[in-house]
Design brief:
alpha/beta, TIM Barrel, 8-stranded parallel β-barrel, 8 strands, about 45% helix
């Protein structure tokens, strides 16, 4: 992407939140990263989200994040839009990564700096400064799990800043979804941040969804998204219910470690997580395997275990 207008046009649909595969000694496995990207693109995903919360950006140093950005953008070569997470507690790092992400042709995805005693005026000033750095515009990333939850009123104010083209909304409670859809629909692109609760936001008018579990269940998540996008609420609900047991385990054991475990069980390379996260233990992995086997036995789920 080269401009804000192009970002606004293309940032919609189903985005894969790409996990970052680490080897057992913590090294980024770029080959596995590349394979995972090609897998979802071959199925027909509309875009990628790189180095996000479940991409474990907070465990990587700046040099590693830059290397991942550059490798992915070279590989994708503008085939699909790419969201590049530039979050950090240090605004200087955010500014540098945001400038790079825009220059590479990605859309920088920016959180408020997660520091103590930051207020709405600080956040507004920060986004105003950041918006000037990227030729492709900025995506606001409302990420409650990182520490700051932006209110709907503040998000609507931020959306008026020149250069704000999209929002990735992590607070998916019905009231927030209703307010943002009602006030921002048609003004900026809005993506639901989680596939654990994707149907409601899409039904009410969000422009798309980002999915971590699509790394592990790419066929099923793709089918669910396209069912709801085509207006078949009954079919999308049926498909979403199919993987409820795995969603429960993901909520219990945490993401991205559960997602990586499923990938590994399917014969793909999900790799390991980095500290402070922990890989699933043998008992947890057995529970995931049982739920995945049950899902694979349902032909309608379009999921099969690797031999």
């Amino acid at each position: 992407m080269k401009s804000q207008a192009e970002s606004s046009e293309r940032v919609k649909g189903l985005f894969n939140i790409t996990v970052t595969p680490f080897s057992s000694n913590g090294v980024i496995d770029f080959q596995a990263l590349s394979e995972g990207i090609e897998r979802v693109l071959s199925i027909g995903y509309d875009g990628l989200l790189i180095g996000g919360t479940y991409g474990e950006f907070s465990t990587m140093n700046t040099e590693e994040r830059v290397a991942v950005f550059q490798a992915v953008m070279d590989q994708v070569n503008n085939r699909v839009p790419v969201l590049l997470c530039t979050a950090h507690s240090d605004s200087r790092v955010v500014f540098d990564l945001t400038k790079l992400a825009g220059e590479l042709g990605g859309l920088p995805m920016v959180t408020a700096p997660y520091v103590s005693e930051v207020n709405d005026d600080h956040i507004y000033d920060f986004f105003q400064r950041t918006s000037k750095l990227s030729p492709t515009g900025i995506m606001i990333y409302n990420a409650p799990g990182i520490g700051i939850t932006l209110s709907p009123n503040l998000i609507c104010k931020l959306a008026e800043i020149d250069g704000m083209v999209a929002l990735k909304q992590g607070d998916l409670n019905p009231t927030s979804v209703d307010i943002l859809s009602g006030r921002l629909h048609g003004k900026i692109r809005i993506l639901a941040a989680s596939d654990l609760a994707l149907l409601g936001p899409l039904a009410i008018g969000f422009d798309g969804v980002s999915s971590t579990n699509s790394c592990a269940l790419p066929e099923l998540i793709h089918a669910i998204y396209h069912a709801i996008a085509s207006g078949d609420a009954q079919e999308s609900g049926r498909l979403q219910r199919l993987w409820y047991p795995l969603r429960e385990l993901a909520r219990t054991f945490g993401q991205p470690q559960t997602t990586k475990t499923i990938m590994n069980l399917r014969g793909w390379t999900g790799g390991h997580v980095r500290s402070p996260l922990l890989d699933l233990n043998d008992v947890q992995t057995a529970e995931v395997y049982k739920a995945l086997s049950d899902l694979a036995s349902d032909a309608d789920a379009s999921v099969s275990l690797a031999a």
